[in-house]
């Protein structure tokens, strides 16, 4: 009897572990879903969310929406504070409550590198010229940060959405981005062709692995 009870208990525990693993997997980051969101709303802004296009720029707000659509969970206050918080919530009566990391590129870079497990820089360049190609080592759904004056503060952000070809090993070459303010769809990832400050611009790509949530 004791043996049967032990076997039953172990079976139940095994099922719970499998269930937890499946649930955790379901909430992992899906770069393709994030890219699909960006492709849908790169120009026709999602009315569910506020726009900051006329209030300093909507680039990071747009990327945050895409990351959220891809499965990155909000980190709300008071459980999370400072650079660990990341959220955009509608207030009961009017307006929105949000963390700076949701709408500001510099703050989001700090949040991603310090508080999103597994996020790492995979490419960094300075002064890439229009027409110049460079390997970004990115995956679909990764984010690209731009520092126009190389002063250590990021001014702009975009999200990797599409492939412009294949690598020698046959894998997709994820080199195209979507972005807001200005609105871009499948633009070459350096954005140098649109950037009069390309000679002083630092560009960094952050990879978000599928285990991130």
Strand order of the largest sheet: 3-8-4-5-6-7
CATH topology: endopeptidase fold (from Nostoc punctiforme)
Distance between termini? 43 Å
Instruction: Tell me the structural class.
Output: alpha+beta
Largest sheet: 6 strands, antiparallel
Could you name the CATH class? Alpha Beta
The CATH homologous superfamily name equals endopeptidase domain like (from Nostoc punctiforme)
Are there runs of 5+ residues with pLDDT below 50, and where?
Answer: 5-26
Write down the Rg.
20 Å
Average per-residue pLDDT, rounded, comes to 89
Q: Which strand-content bin applies to the residues?
A: 15-25%
Shape: globular
CATH architecture annotation name:
Alpha-Beta Complex
Our count of domains comes out at: 1
Range of helix content: 25-40%
Number of strands: 8
What is the H/E order?
A: HHHEEHHEEEEEE
Helix segment count? Answer: 5
